[in-house]
Automatic annotation (TrEMBL):
Gene Ontology terms: biological process: DNA-templated transcription initiation
Organism: uncultured Cytophagales bacterium
InterPro entries in the record: RNA_pol_sigma-70-like, RNA_pol_sigma-70_dom, RNA_pol_sigma70_bacteroid, RNA_pol_sigma70_r2, RNA_pol_sigma70_r4_t2, RNA_pol_sigma_r2, RNA_pol_sigma_r3/r4-like, WH-like_DNA-bd_sf
The protein's name in its UniProt record: RNA polymerase ECF-type sigma factor
Molecular function in Gene Ontology: DNA binding; sigma factor activity
Pfam families according to UniProt: Sigma70_r2 (PF04542), Sigma70_r4_2 (PF08281)
Keywords, sorted A to Z: Sigma factor, Transcription, Transcription regulation
Transmembrane segments: none
SUPFAM superfamilies (alphabetical): Sigma2 domain of RNA polymerase sigma factors, Sigma3 and sigma4 domains of RNA polymerase sigma factors
Domain RNA polymerase sigma factor 70 region 4 type: 145-196
Length: 214
């Protein structure tokens, strides 16, 4: 049974994201926090929420162009993170995992919207798009395959791509961090995307690739 009110998280996303960053976890890595989360540590959950809510919200808003939808989707993700904490399987960085999870939820959202638009008179079709164990298995498999292919990228190309997609840094921030030009950063990201789309083309569709890698 949950010992804190998830509804509070659901309706107070921005204020919480700014507020929740427990000082005792300042020096903990994301992996440390995940381990504590799996043990039911609420403050570790708070710390992850504080670290990632804004980044994930901006990612969702970029795709959905709706403040309300983006907030709702990210809140659903964190609620799911808590309720499924004991069975979490994160094989990449936490930032990459959460970013991929948001993209996957956006794909599911657009699937539901398309089905609703095309078959709004046929309510019986809706359950076909409910979250299932198969969805979770597919997401975990997809996460693992993408990370394997990212690790095969040329070293500098991989470093830039991970800073962009995993750490959610802008091209300008990456150029400052690595002491290279923004054009160089742009070229590395473009090269990484081309290589990944080529290596993953037999595993997932171009639409899914667009959301996970774009």
């Amino acid at each position: 049974m949950l010992f804190f009110n998830l509804n509070w998280y659901y309706y107070e996303p921005i204020r919480l994201a700014l507020k929740l960053s427990p000082l005792q976890f300042t020096h903990h890595t994301d992996q440390d926090l995940v381990q504590l989360l799996q043990q039911g540590d609420k403050k570790a959950f708070d710390a992850l929420y504080g670290r990632y809510w804004r980044k994930l919200y901006l990612l969702a808003y970029q795709k959905l162009r709706s403040r309300e939808l983006a907030e709702e989707l990210v809140q659903d993700l964190f609620i799911s993170l808590w309720t499924k904490r004991e069975s979490l399987q994160i094989t990449s960085s936490v930032g990459a995992y959460l970013g991929m999870a948001v993209r996957y939820m956006i794909i599911k959202f657009f699937q539901k919207e398309r089905v609703h638009h095309q078959y709004e008179q046929t309510a019986a079709l809706a359950p076909a798009y409910a979250n299932t164990t198969e969805d979770e298995v597919f997401f975990n498999d997809l996460q693992e395959v993408i990370e394997q292919e990212i690790n095969k990228l040329p070293e500098k190309c991989r470093e830039v791509f991970q800073l962009s997609r995993h750490d959610h840094l802008s091209q300008k921030e990456i150029s400052v961090k690595l002491h290279v030009s923004e054009k160089t950063v742009e070229n590395h990201i473009g090269k990484a995307l081309r290589l990944l789309r080529l290596s993953l083309k037999d595993f997932i569709t171009s639409v899914v690739l667009l959301f996970f890698l774009g």
